[in-house]
Amino acid sequence: MRYELVIFDNDGVLVDSEPIANTILAGYLTELGHPTSYEESLRDYMGAAMHRVHDLVEERSGEKLPADFEATYYARTFAAFQEELVAVDGVEELLGKLVADGVDYCVASSGSHEKIRVGHRKTGLDQWFEEEWIFSSEDVGRGKPAPDLFLHAAERMGVAPERCVVIEDSPLGVEAARAAGMDVYGFTSMMPADRLTGVTGYFSDMSQLPELLA
Fold first, then answer.
1. Residues 181, 166: contact at Cβ < 8 Å?
2. With CB atoms 3.0 to 4.6 Å apart as the test, which of 8, 67, 145, 209 could cross-link to 175 if both were Cys?
3. What does the H/E/C string look like for 113-125?
4. Is 9 an active-site residue?
5. Could you give the C-alpha distances from 103 to 96, 170, 207, in angstroms and in order?
6. b/e burial code for range 118-153 (CB count within 10 A of at least 16 → b)
7. Taking the mean position of all CA atoms in its chain, how far away is CA 23?
8. Residue 119 pLDDT > 90, yes or no?
9. Assessment of whether the complete model's pTM goes beyond 0.85
10. Is 122 left (phi over 0), alpha (psi -120 to 50) or beta?
11. What pLDDT score does 79 carry?
């Protein structure tokens, strides 16, 4: 493999959480008086850190979200995860191949550390990730589309950015990876390929990825 480190986004790439999380986010924002459809939530917030939700709502409405917004959102989301969340099809096989081939990997997510771990425990992916391989937007000052998170992950893993490859499914994540100077492959299970501009390549099934990275 021509890369020394594979950096995975989490939501929508490792765990199939985007439909759950965006349904809850759209419903909660609408409940608070900021009408948002599921499709609008995907468009505006998929792949973003929570501060983007606060920023866009205030920019558009002039109103701040309530102080307990994130606590309520995460409580609802985690409850739904316990009922519905599964790993993305083929992810465990892919991780097993990386381990067998001796390729390092990690996760760099816009989600909180708690959200990553809740999802990994529910799906069994926690067995594949050591604590020091998990990075969140909480670790850096700016989330995606800024490159900070991916650069932080590369630094902590001891790999130069140009030797890293990012696996992403959102336009914001692709933008962040490109800004970090990394190759990035776009997973098109939910996001149309034409929304993931600037990627190194596309794939729609995890079984296709090893050949792309070879």
1. no
2. 145
3. HHHHHHHHHHHCH
4. yes
5. 10, 24, 16
6. bbbebbebbebbeeebbbbbbebeebbbbbbbbbbb
7. 16
8. yes
9. yes
10. alpha
11. 96
Among 11, 44, 169, 183, which one carries the catalytic annotation? 11
Q: Report the alpha-carbon distance of residue 205 to residue 13 in Å, rounded.
A: 10
Residue 136 has pLDDT above 90, yes or no: yes
Q: Encoding tokens for residue 94? A: 């892919």
Q: Which of 9, 148, 169, 183 is catalytic?
A: 9
Q: What's the CA gap between 33 and 90, in Å, rounded?
A: 39
| Mean pLDDT, the chain, whole residue set | 96
Left, alpha or beta for 62 (phi > 0: left; psi -120 to 50: alpha)? left
What pLDDT digit, counting tens, does each position of 42-75 carry?
999 988 889 999 999 999 999 999 999 999 999 9
Q: Are the beta carbons of 212 and 201 closer than 8 angstroms?
A: yes
Q: Is 205 a catalytic residue?
A: no
> Average of pLDDT values for 134-154?
95
Rounded Cα–Cα distance for residues 137 and 64 (Å) = 21
* Cβ proximity of 16 and 10 under 8 Å: no
- Asked if residue 203 has pLDDT above 90, the reply is yes
The two structure tokens encoding residue 165: 């490859």
Which DSSP category does 88 fall into?
A: P
**What pLDDT does residue 141 have?**
83
Task: State the angle between helix axes of 113-123 and 69-84 in degrees (0 to 180), rounded to the nearest 10.
Answer: 10
